[in-house]
Amino acid sequence: MQKKKTKSINEFNFPVSKRIGNRYIILEKLGAGWEGEVYKVLEVLTKRQRAIKLFYPQRNVNFKVSTRYAQKLDKLKDCPIIMNYHSHELITFKGQKVACLTSELIEGELLDDFVKYQRGKRLSIFPAIHLLYSLVKGVESIHLNGEYHGDIHTGNVIIRKFGLSFDIKLIDLHHWGDSKKDNRDEDIIKIIRLFYDILGGKARYAKLPPSIKYIVCGLKRGLILERFKSISHLRVHLEAMDWSDAIEG
């Protein structure tokens, strides 16, 4: 007898107030991606708000992706830039087992949206450098734990508060098949690209002072990795740099 083929699940699209298992009530859909969907939920027993990520089964065969994700979050539990992981469990949806990963709910604003609301849809040099430093220090803690983020961009950075320094969180960790050294290098490249983007990108680059252009390196990958061989090298440079030429009048 031929085994019936399991139908792919390409969306959950749970409505507000839907109960997930016996534990959560949906409050809001926060987003969706290739791997699955993320929801803001209320934990029934504790009345605490959490975030859950539900993985599409065909993208999470034998729960390898969700398990690896949970293990990575647990490994990085002491990194302040990473959200706190709570649990990995299974629910049933349309007859299929679906991985449900629960973590802290991070309140704040996506960097992408934050920048759009600034004058000229960019950050001035002073806050941009402080944000860069906060991001570099956070990612350094990830790298020192032998890991990497894998997909750093303005849509994966949440700003919780800002002033003289930024309180930020990174979301949506990735696991790629390449070596961890290559992926840590890629984190550096993407951080520099993020810095370039929040300063206004191509339209503003020519007007940036030499101290800032030294960091951006014209987005030349080889030059960036020659100057900043690790995220720690970049952090040390930011702590010692003279950026008096970058003070805007």
Q: Could you describe the 3D structure shown?
A:
The protein has 249 residues and is of the alpha+beta class. It folds into 2 domains: 19-104, Phosphorylase Kinase, domain 1 (2-Layer Sandwich), CATH 3.30.200; 109-246, Transferase(Phosphotransferase), domain 1. It contains 8 helices and 9 strands. The protein has helices at 64-75, 111-116, 125-144, 180-198, 202-205, 210-216, 221-227, 231-240, and strands spanning 19-20, 24-32, 36-43, 49-55, 85-93, 96-104, 109-110, 157-162, 166-170. The strands form 2 sheets. Strands 1-2-3-4-6-5 form a 6-stranded antiparallel sheet. Strands 7-8-9 form a 3-stranded antiparallel sheet. α3 runs antiparallel to α4 and α3 packs antiparallel against α8 (231-240). The chain is elongated and about 60 Å long.
Question: SSE order in H/E notation?
Answer: EEEEHEEEHHEEHHHHH
Report the radius of gyration as a whole number of Å: 20 Å
Strand elements, count:
9
Mean pLDDT: 92
Largest sheet: 6 strands, antiparallel
Which bin fits the share of residues in helices? 25-40%
Oligomerization category of the chains in this entry: single chain
Strand order of the largest sheet: 1-2-3-4-6-5
CATH class call of the largest domain:
Mainly Alpha
Q: What structural category do the secondary elements indicate?
A: alpha+beta
Low-confidence stretches: none
What distance lies between the first and last C-alpha atoms, to the nearest angstrom?
78 Å
Can you name the CATH architecture of the largest domain? Orthogonal Bundle
CATH H-level homologous superfamily name of the largest domain: Transferase(Phosphotransferase) domain 1
CATH topology of the largest domain: Transferase(Phosphotransferase), domain 1
**Beta-strand content:** 15-25%
What general outline do the C-alpha atoms trace?
Answer: elongated
> With helices defined by DSSP (H or I, 4 residues minimum), what is the helix count?
8
| Integer tally of domains | 2
